[in-house]
Amino acid sequence: MSADAANVRQFTVALDDDGIRLDRWFKRHLPDASFNVVSRWARTGQLRVDGARATPGDRIQAGQVIRVPPADSAPAVAARPKKARVTLSPEQVEFAESMVIHRDDQAIVLNKPPGLATQGGTKTHDHVDQLLDGLYFDLDARPKLVHRLDKDTSGALVLARTARAAAFFSKSFSGRTARKTYWAIVVGVPDIDDGFIDLPLAKQPGTGGEKMHVDEAEGQPARTRYRVIDRAGNRAAWVELQPHTGRTHQLRVHMAAIGHPIVGDGKYGLADAFLSGSISRKMHLHARRIRIDHPDGGKLDVSADLPTHFAETLASLGFDIADGDAMPVDEKAPPTREQQKAKAKAHAKTVRKERRGERRGRGNRR
């Protein structure tokens, strides 16, 4: 046996790495091996998973054994240092922990208050991402954001506690299998109590990407289901909103587009977005409930309490919060325009085939 063969390394894929690409596994655990080196190992058959030849793009599963050539086979590259844990003040840690409404081995769910950004940016120094260093609890891994809420939108925000959970949740959100239910107070009352808004959205020119608008020609598909929970005469309505796509500011743009802007949303409703009297001028949009598959099986189903201004508005308008929670679970979304067109095309093709068959049958009887 050669010295190199004797020094071959073997690693068992951990649960946190289940489902990730092999090249991603190397970045996590063997950063000294560059992508080019890993690719060379794959081409020459030195890289194997459970004894079979592997490529950098292969997905690996927990429990599999990765065979890696000796360390000398790869040039030494300085590993990137791990990000140091940021020390937060006791007040910041207390605030971060006060937002937690659910915690298990894989996930944390926060009830984000209005006015707190999810991530930092230009002139944004206070945000959820900054506070994640106060939410390690009993694990060594820093929680990860897997989706976002607008700064002025409150409610349920899911964090992943492990790399496996982050990959799992990210796939659920990108695949639209996560179900998010929002509550909003809107100006006026929609003519249809239960409807779908199917209006494509794009960044509005001249706003630096900070504002969206409806763009039938070049916009990205955007679909929202809304249901009226209750109404205060013709003045305002309490609605349940369910996004079936995830465009920036989608719910806000869609409600403004049908003439019923969300109360407090001056960005899209302008002066029409505010009610007179004692109604707060803050945004009345709240992520009430999140339902998503859990990495360990079953469902993660969490509801977030309303912020004070929203609860006070419900009471002021004579709405009963129990009516919102009594709404039945949403039904399957109706087909998109593209799906309807494809279905009609397939039906037409079937009809043409049947007619050709009928014509051939009549010809054979002559």
**Can you tell me the residue ranges where pLDDT is under 50 for at least 5 consecutive residues?**
73-80
| Overall 3D shape | globular
Average pLDDT, all residues = 88
Largest sheet: 10 strands, mixed
Q: Can you count the helices?
A: 11
Compile the SSE list and pairings:
Elements: H1 3-6, E1 9-12, H2 22-29, H3 35-43, E2 48-49, E3 52-53, E4 65-68, H4 90-98, E5 100-103, E6 107-112, H5 128-131, E7 144-145, E8 154-160, H6 163-174, E9 179-187, E10 194-198, E11 201-203, E12 212-214, E13 223-232, E14 236-243, H7 250-257, H8 266-269, E15 285-293, E16 299-303, H9 308-316, H10 321-325, H11 337-364
Parallel strand pairs: 8-15
Antiparallel strand pairs: 1-4, 2-3, 2-4, 5-6, 6-8, 7-8, 9-14, 9-15, 10-13, 11-12, 13-14, 15-16
Structure, described:
This protein is α+β, with helices and mostly antiparallel strands and 366 residues long. Helix content is 27%, strand content 23%. It has eleven helices and 16 strands. Strands 5, 6, 7, 8, 9, 10, 13, 14, 15 and 16 form a ten-stranded mixed sheet that branches. β5 (100-103) and β6 form a beta hairpin. The N and C termini lie far apart (81 Å). Residues 73-80 have low confidence and may be disordered.
Please supply descriptive tags for the structure shown above.
366 residues, alpha+beta, 10-stranded mixed β-sheet, 11 helices
Summed up:
The chain is an alpha+beta fold and 366 residues long.
